[in-house]
Amino acid sequence: MSKVAIITGGGSGLGQATAIRMAQEGINIAVVDVSDKGGNETVERVKAVGVDAIFIKADVSKAEEVKSYVDKTVEHFGSIDYFFNNAGISGSGKFYLDTTIDEINQIVDINLLGALYGVRYVAEVMLKNGGGSIVNTASSAGVIGQDSVVTYSATKHGIIGLTRSMVAEYAKDGLRVNAIAPGPTETPMVRAFYEANPEMKENATGGIPQKRLGTPEEVAELVTFLLTSKAEYINGEVIRIDGGFTSTK
Ligand code: NAD
């Protein structure tokens, strides 16, 4: 029987590229996003590859909507084998003391609580079915400190704690949980961020040993490898995919 993946933030960027790459492996996809436009576009592109896909509109920062996307996936496909826990937003690019409490709350709600809720409900289904594989999206900002991203960085460090501690509790039951830590990757989110903060793009590319941003397709390849059985003995890892960026810090 075909395997089933849930991909949050599947309507754009890393999530969309991964949905398409996983579909090429014959995996059916539940695309979760707040954006109707992006979600529906991904479903169309995934179906064109020849697998089944559904769009579930949900805000990952709302626990009841997370439970609902998990329930709807199980209703439609019968199980969940893979989970790319990826939806997230970037910060405003301001120094921490210039950010408002509302901005802090919004980033924490989506990036950290959204990821925690996702693992909470998805792992429950996976463990009932004998196991599964999860990849959480951290960031370079989850493994090093950087200016202008304090709250974002705190959430992404949190993603790594979530990843490692889940392994401590559930690896013995057949669950694999890994994280990816991409450097700046050319997606709509990053394009928008650098358009608002052009001086930071120059800094970012200049500081990358490979002297270019990553691509969503490169990240999709890594996530597909980590989620599927090719990576069966990799667990609790944080894989950096950043052109050497954090290795020089
Ligand atoms: P993106 O903006 O292209 O895609 C993010 C998607 O998430 C969008 O479709 C958006 O609608 C969706 N989303 C936002 N808030 C949501 C919510 N509350 N509920 C459901 N969906 C929501 O961005 P991306 O670059 O593909 O980012 C994906 C993940 O990768 C994020 O967690 C981001 O922090 C992380 N990341 C990105 C980069 C990069 O350079 N692009 C680097 C490191 C980490």
Automatic annotation (TrEMBL):
Pfam families documented for this protein: adh_short_C2 (PF13561)
Protein keywords: Oxidoreductase
GO molecular function: oxidoreductase activity, acting on the CH-OH group of donors, NAD or NADP as acceptor; quinone binding
CDD domains with a match to the protein in the record: SDR_c
Database matches in InterPro entries: NAD(P)-bd_dom_sf (IPR036291), SDR_fam (IPR002347)
Biological processes annotated in GO: bile acid metabolic process; fatty acid biosynthetic process
Family, similarity comment: Belongs to the short-chain dehydrogenases/reductases (SDR) family.
UniProt cross-references to NCBIfam families, sorted A to Z: PRK07231.1
Protein name stated in the entry: Short-chain dehydrogenase
Source organism of the structure: Ureibacillus sinduriensis BLB-1 = JCM 15800
Lineage start: Bacteria, Bacillati, Bacillota, Bacilli, Bacillales
